[in-house]
Amino acid sequence: MTPESLVIIFVALAIGAFAKGMTGLGLPPTSIAILAVFFGVEHAIVVTTIPVAFSNIQIVWIARERFKDMPQIWPPLLAGALGVGLGTWVLATLDEHTLTIILTVWIAFYLLTVLFNLKIEPEGKAARVFSPVIAGGAGICQGAMGMSGPFIATWAHAMGFVKETYVFATSLLFMSISVTHVLGVGVAGLYDQERIVQGLLAILPVMIFIPLGMRLTRRISPRIFSLLIVGIIGLMEVRLIWGLVTGG
User: Fold this and answer.
1) Which pLDDT tens digit goes with each residue over 8-41?
2) CA contacts within 13 A on the Cβ side of 75
3) Count of structural domains within the chain
């Protein structure tokens, strides 16, 4: 483990954590997109499982008084956790090239949902009935690709959360699936000593930059910051595509 690799991991997680603190989303897409370019897809996903789980536990703990505003929360939390098992199996069985293709397509979809504000917006009773299904889809994507933002955003809308509880709600579901993801990756044997050490060290930028992002939410335009994050992810997407085309 070189000093250069530690710097890359710190920067990737710092950028993602700041986005997470401001918007409730953005840590996995940003950090995984950056790390995948330097370390490969499986390594990037496995290393980020630990800081991602920690980040959601941190936000849920900080805003724990919001839990009383979460009606009918247990079915989607359980569905999301169960979905992680299937997704982790996909991660453990596919080769690196196939994982890179899937990650590249998934990041492209994520960028489209952000840039064009594409949303599936279920309403009313049906939305709450199907919220566990949406949460299960989030778990599958989290297990396989380490990120599930579009599904999480759809689930939060279906549950009808108001602005003040949105970040907490998304982090609560993220916590359920990300903690399960850590367990699943461990059972699948994808951790080794280097990945565990890197994942634990990656908690440091998360501890620093999530609270900072939460404090600066009202001082920095979330829209401008989101566009900056999209730009970073977009550059990493181009690099992944270039690697697939050239074989490098």
Assistant:
1) 999 999 999 888 887 767 788 889 999 999 999 9
2) 11
3) 1
